[in-house]
Structure formats: C-alpha cells, structure tokens
Amino acid sequence: MEREAQSDCRVSRPEGNVAHTGTMNASRAQALYQSLFELMPGSVVLLNARGVVLDANPSFCRQIGYAREELLGRHVSVFSKDSRETIERNLARLLAGEVLEHVVSNIHKDGSLRHYELRETAIRLPDGARGILALSNDITRRVNAEQEKLELQRQFLHAEKLKSLGLMAGGIAHDFNNLLAVIVGNIEMASMELPHEPGARAMLREAVSAANRAAHLTRQMLAYSGRGHFVVTDVDLNETIRGTTELLNVTVSKKASLEFRLDDSLPLVKGDAAQLQQVVMNLVTNASEALADQPGLITVSTSLRECDSTFLSANRAGNSLNPGSYAVLEVSDTGCGMEESVQQQLFDPFFTTKFVGRGLGMSATLGVVRGHDGGILVSSRAGRGTTMTVLFPAGTVEFFKTPSAQKHEPAANKSPMPALTGTVLVVDDEAIMRSMIERVLKRTGLRVILATHGWEAVSLFQQHADEITFVLLDLSMPKLDGMKTLAELRRHRPEVKAVLTSGYNEASICQRSVQEGFVAFIPKPYQAGALIELARRICAGEL
Ligand SMILES: Nc1ncnc2c1ncn2[C@@H]1O[C@H](COP(=O)(O)OP(=O)(O)OP(=O)(O)O)[C@@H](O)[C@H]1O
Ligand SMILES: [Mg+2]
Question: Count of CB atoms within 10 A of residue 46's CB?
C-alpha cells in the first residue's frame, strides 16, 4: 500500500474562487463548499501533483466502494485501471496547463469495473502547492448497457450465421443425395452386369462403401439443418443402444473400456430410432477420440430423471424445456476434456479440434435433439473428461404413420431380379437421375416413360393413363412440384398410384406424402434394390 504524508491542505477545500462569494466571509464560504463537496451527486477527487489522493467526496467513495480514510494518502493507481505510465503522462500534461476530458475505468474495491467521464484540471492548493481536481460522472450503467447490446448483436449475428450454414448444409446435402443416388444406383447395376469379375466387383464394392460414407456425412448435415429423415415411433432407448453395441465396440479404441448402465424402467420416448442411434454413435465416437488411444472408460447410461427449471437452464440446445420427467442418455468419458473456449464452440457446424474431424458430429446431434424437443447439457473439464447429457421428453412429438418403402432392405444382391409387367411414369428434372431409374426399372421388365417436369408428366399421363401402373415423382421440381403434379394426375385418374422421392428427407415431407395419398415415400439416396422391391410390391398389389 502506498501512503504519503498528507499535506495539511486535505481538510481545506480549494479556495481559488472564493472571491466569487462577494460578501461571504471565508469560514461561511468554506462551509458552503464543504456542503457542495459532500452533497453533489458527481464525484470529486483532489490529488497532489504526484497523484496522491488528498480528498474524495462521498459520492466517489460510494461508487468505488472505499471509505474516504482508505483512499487518503494513497496513489490513484489503487483504483485507476490506467497503467502507471499513463497516469504519470496525464499528470505531466495537467501540470503543464492542459485540461483533460476523457473516459476512464476504475476498479471498485470488490474488483468490478466502474466507468467514468472525467474532467481534470490543475489547481493551486491553499498551501500554495499544485494539485489536481478531478470531477467525474459515473457512466458504468451506460457503458455496460452498450457492451450488453454489442454482445447481443454478436450473438444474433452468430445465430444468423449458423442459420444460413444450416440452410446451406441442407441444400448441399439434398444435391449430394441426388448425386449419390445416381452413383450407387449405377454401380449396383454395373455389378449386376459383371457377375463373374471378382476384381472389378471388389472395386465397385469399395466405391459403394465410399458412397455410403458420403451418405453418412449428408445425413449428419441434414440432421443439423433439421431436414433429416424423421420417422417417429415409440422408441426404446435401451434397445436402440443395444442395437448399436456391435458398431460401438468396433468404433471405440482398443484400450478403452465401454460400459453400459441401462435403466430397464426407462419409458419409451417418441422419436426417430435411426436418428437416436446417430446421436449415440456421435457421442461415443467423440468420447473414444477424447481418450486418444490412452486407456480410459466410456460409460453409456440411461435413466429416468425429474428435471427442474434450474437443471434445465443449463440446456445448450437453445430451446426452452418444461420441467418434468425426461429419459436421459448420458455418455461420459475419462478423456482429454474441453477448455471453456472449446465448450463454447462445440455445437458450431464445422468446428473441430481434430486433424481429420469434420466438426459435424455435435451439430448433427444438436439438430436431432432439437427435432425431438429435447435438451443437451455438457459438463467437461480440461484433462478430466466429459459428460454429455441428452434429455428426451416423452409424448411431445406427434406420432404419424409412415409410408413403408424406406424400411425395405436392399434386395438386389440377395433376391433374384423379379420379372414385372406394367408401365412406370418417372418424373424427375435431373437427367442422370431419370436414366439411372430407367435402367433399374427396365431390368425388371417394366416399361418406363420419362418426363422432365410436372406438366410434361401430366400430358404423358393423359396419353397413357390406362397403361400406367404407378408414377415415381420427384418432390422438388421447377413450376409444378411432385405434390402438385399428383393433384393434376388425380384429375384424370383419381386412384393413380404414386411414389414420392426426395433428397430432402425431413419429417414434414414424409408426413405430407402420407396425407397426400402417395403409396410410399422413398428418400434419396436409395439403393436400386429398394426401388425394385417397391416396384414389385406395387405390381403385386401390396401397396
Ligand atoms: N467427449 C469429448 N471430449 C473432448 N472434446 C470433445 C468431446 N466431444 C466433442 N469434443 C470437441 O468438440 C469438437 C466438435 O465435435 P464434433 O463431434 O462436432 O466434431 P469432430 O468430432 O471434430 O468431427 P466429426 O464428428 O465430424 O468427425 C471436437 O473436435 C472436440 O474438440
Ligand atoms: Mg465427432
């Protein structure tokens, strides 16, 4: 602590202007200044030429949290946030006759920052020495409000950025699904034509497996954008986890122990089993990567938990959750944990700290959690490990019946090619998609009519209405989309059978396709076998 011998002027007030008082005598003038000094709302601090506090009025003391006695005799650096050099420089300028007006920050006794608009000037003290008179207004509230506004703006921009990233990811995923459908479909057809070429077939298998990995990435992107394939059923979370065990065991590093603590009394949750599985996979993969080939423990547990609003306030999914019971999925690891800054960015799409990471796992998880009206909580310490807690409410998501096509196993490689008769009208604005579908369907013996857009489909349908067994309609087409095209076709033949297909596999499309009377919805990319099986069932009158 720095305390200097206080000059005897500290109890007197600056008297330079006392002449103004006219008829007032010196002691009455002093009493008046004393009252002004003590009662004025603004802050007044008197310093000597070296920056030592000679006096401070109650207003200043209150704002800065010190008693007057604690300040007297101490250098301004006790509370000023300015460096010693800045203080010295300012003192020199003041003593040279400058009047300084600036915004300064002081440190309150409790450590918090206070901001002031300050006007400083040099004066002559009663003992003739030179001093500094500092008058200031506390503008802390205003500065804090401005900073809060800036922070809100920053968060808003960040949210906007994520929203457009989501839209972009959804759009790219949609186009990729179209392209992948063509790639996978053609490879499958090619391998059917090459039955006795083991070398070539192995290469084609690798190509399909790479395309499947790409399809996995688009699934992650679609999940984040909230446009993922969404089939709601009553899901047993424990069963979902058990169904993934084999996959999890090959995913986690050899040195990690994977432990399951599944609560058998867990109620069913309304959700999409495939997406919930995706969440489990993403969380366990991250846990395993956090162990980085070191021995460690990964625990996957489920439980039923009553969550109050305090607990739910830590939800990172950005949605507000009602207090109540939740089915909880928890994945803990004893891995590297996360610094605060990593935790902040954890859910940003494409944020990764890994060399080969894509930064999609957690953002996809977030998309799925939001889509299920759930929540996610993160508890992590650098070097100590991480626990991710995912909450799913029961009964909040509407159940709807889903068309059955997408559930079918690819049949092409397993069952013999069915011999079908009939005509299919295929409507897709993408030429490569049309020719791939044509090739697949023709192999079954079906006749295929191609249309490049909805209106052409309507006119072709009019010409061949009696021959057409079913219509395969792409959803997103310019002018007349798949749904509207079906409405037009119905005007000519109300009982026409139609299958909807789309690279956007979101819940609403799937749901609407049922409402609009499509016999099935087949999400892209699909395997040739799935399309053939679908055609077989329609031709057999099963759909
Ligand atoms: N269990 C965990 N322990 C430590 N850090 C984690 C954990 N989970 C996520 N992280 C951090 O969050 C980042 C983002 O995770 P996310 O799963 O989204 O992407 P990724 O794992 O890097 O790549 P991808 O999942 O697309 O392969 C990771 O790079 C990592 O830094
Ligand atoms: Mg990951």
Answer: 23
Could you say which DSSP state residue 12 is in? S
In ligand 1, the atom with minimum distance to the C-alpha of 359 is 19
Q: What share of the chain is helix, strand, coil (3-state, %, to 5)?
A: 45, 20, 35
Q: Return the DSSP state at 330.
A: E
Both tokens of 200, joined, read 């070539």
Tokens read off for 284:
């366990």
128 class by beta-carbon count within 10 Å (0-12 exposed, 13-18 middle, 19+ buried): exposed
* CB 346 near ligand 1, within 6 Å: yes
- Tell whether ligand 1 has an atom less than 6 A from the beta carbon of residue 362: yes
Which residue type, as a one-letter code, is found at position 338?
M
Domains annotated on the chain, with CATH: 8-138 (3.30.450.20), 233-393 (3.30.565.10), 405-539 (3.40.50.2300)
pLDDT score at 69: 95
Kindly list the protein residues that place their beta carbon closer than 5 angstroms to ligand 2, a single-atom ion. 286, 361
Indicate if ligand 1 lies below 6 Å from the C-beta of 334: no
Structure tokens at 132: 């500094």
**Contact assessment for residue 275 and residue 223, using Cβ atoms and an 8 Å cutoff:** yes
For 338-375, the pLDDT digits (tens) are 999 999 999 988 899 998 888 889 988 998 898 888 99
Q: Which amino acid is at 332?
A: S
Centroid of ligand 1 to alpha carbon of 491 (angstroms):
52
What is the C-alpha radius of gyration for the chain, rounded to an integer number of angstroms?
Answer: 37
CA–centroid distance, 298 to ligand 2, in Å, is 15
Contact assessment for residue 84 and residue 76, using Cβ atoms and an 8 Å cutoff: no
Has residue 23 got a pLDDT over 70?
A: no
Helix (H) / strand (E) element for 75: namely none
Expressed in angstroms and rounded, the spacing between residue 259 Cα and the centre of ligand 2 is 19
